[in-house]
Specification:
- By secondary structure, this protein is mostly helical.
- It has 19 helices and six strands.
- The strands form three sheets. A two-stranded antiparallel sheet has the order 1-4.
- β2 and β3 form a beta hairpin.
- α3 packs antiparallel against α12 and α18 runs antiparallel to α19.
């Protein structure tokens, strides 16, 4: 695609701050959602700080050549819950979060060393465009339900196969549609700066509409119109509660059995996330027209992701991973400047100490973010489909590979094996690799 800012470009300082804020908005909801889901007193602010630290480490390892933000990984939620479930105290659970992140990071380091020695040709053979393209599409499509449910904010009727439309649902949908169309109009018809910050303008428009509905609902006593919970400003957290502070109180109680429990919970998931790591970087490579697996190299992106996850968990408890929302933001805005990602990382670290700022960001209604995510997740899906535009789908071999991946992914083929969850993305990718290898066993033609 035509990039407005390439990876080495440096926007002006004023523009840079605005672009960084937009990237922060794109990754915010998912990054702070993980500690909220895991609970046990985990801090959203600390997760934001840890994401910033992890991203900077990633940028250092990749020599500032890969424009992607690292945020809290949803794949490790089950592992984090297992760390707390197997702990004799909450403090030991926090120690388990750090130990688990070290195990996961070690997997990445090990794979990085293998890649450094063996190269990436074996990965290109296992995951050609016919495999990785539909897998990337699944990353976006698998999140489609989240974007729609956030936009409607209503109860889903299983029997009817549709959302129950009440006043609150209609109001949420209006805010989501306003946000969506403002983003689209700014991206397509906007000039210069407007085209570069469609998310900021769209979220601002949606937030204003949501505020109007909330004020009307508050004054009339109609709770269905209230979309923003302004009470969250009453108990703002000014200083992040870092994971290592609580963990320091629990390391003395950690025994070998607990370490083994944490290892079993984290290590297999790291291999699963490795597959998604490749898919994200292949997708980003396609967007910026640079093969990141070759330059700076897959071994560097893996090291950055792995070590970044360790330090991210040290501060925020959550292992980090490359974010599709960040990739989608690059695709829509045409801003691939690595300096923008660096500024976003620094901004997220600073913001974690500013209570009103973090609280304001967390107060953005889900319906507003749902409107934004319809475009973000959609662009991820389309980016994957673009990868297979030159694949000959008239050949049954290619057709079977693509169809198997799409159906397994969209159908939600997620498997729970003990404490390990193979996500629909991982299952679809693994199944696609197997089908492709079987069908191309005696075929030397390239896809």
């Amino acid at each position: 695609m035509n990039l407005i800012f390439d990876i080495h470009d440096r926007p002006k300082f004023g523009q840079l701050i605005v672009f960084a804020f937009q990237q922060l908005l794109a990754i915010l909801a998912a990054t702070i959602a993980v500690p909220s889901i895991v609970g046990n007193g985990m801090s959203q602010s600390a997760a934001l700080f840890g994401a910033g630290v992890g991203t900077i480490i990633y940028l250092l390892f990749t020599k500032f050549r890969s424009p992607v933000f690292l945020g809290s990984s949803f794949a490790f939620i089950g592992s984090m819950l297992a760390a707390f479930a197997g702990a004799v105290s909450t403090q030991v659970g926090y120690a388990g979060l750090i130990i688990g992140a070290v195990f996961a990071g070690a997997v990445y380091v090990l794979i990085a060393l293998i890649v450094k020695v063996a190269g990436v040709m074996w990965i290109n053979k296992l995951m050609p465009a016919v495999v990785i393209g539909p897998t990337v599409a699944i990353i976006g499509l698998s999140l489609a339900g989240n974007a729609v449910s956030d936009s409607l904010a209503g109860a889903y009727d299983e029997a009817a196969g549709a959302f129950i439309m009440n006043t609150h649902t209609w109001v949420s949908l209006i805010c989501a549609i306003v946000t969506l169309f403002v983003v689209i109009i700014c991206s397509v018809y906007g000039k210069k700066m407007v085209r570069l910050i469609p998310f900021i303008i769209g979220i601002a428009a949606g937030y204003i509409v949501a505020t109007i509905f909330t004020l009307v609902g508050t004054s009339t006593g109609n709770s269905d119109l209230i979309l923003i919970d302004f009470s969250v400003f009453n108990n703002m957290q000014w200083v992040p509660e870092f994971t290592f502070v609580e963990a320091a109180k629990g390391f003395a109680e950690v025994d070998s059995q607990y370490i083994a429990t944490v290892a079993v919970a984290y290590i297999p998931v790291a291999f699963v996330v490795f597959a998604e790591h490749i898919a994200d970087h292949k997708n980003l490579s396609n967007i910026i027209s640079r093969d990141l697996l070759d330059n700076p190299g897959l071994h560097r992106t893996l090291l950055g992701d792995g070590v970044g996850s360790i330090f991210g968990a040290f501060f925020g408890g959550c292992p980090n991973t490359t974010y599709g929302e960040s990739v989608g933001c690059v695709a829509i805005t045409g801003n691939a400047s690595v300096v923008t990602i660096l500024a976003t990382a620094i901004l997220s670290m600073i913001a974690s100490f500013i209570g009103p700022f973090v609280t304001f960001l967390s107060s953005i209604p889900g319906c507003v973010m749902g409107g934004v995510c319809i475009t973000l997740y959609g662009f991820i899906a389309v980016s994957g489909l673009k990868m297979i535009q030159f694949v000959d789908l008239n050949e049954n071999r290619n057709l079977f590979v693509v169809s198997v991946i799409l159906i397994a992914g969209i159908g939600g083929m997620a498997l729970q094996i003990g404490q390990v969850t193979l996500t629909e993305i991982a299952c679809a990718l693994i199944l696609g690799i197997i089908v492709n290898l079987i069908l191309s066993r005696n075929d030397k033609k390239k896809f």
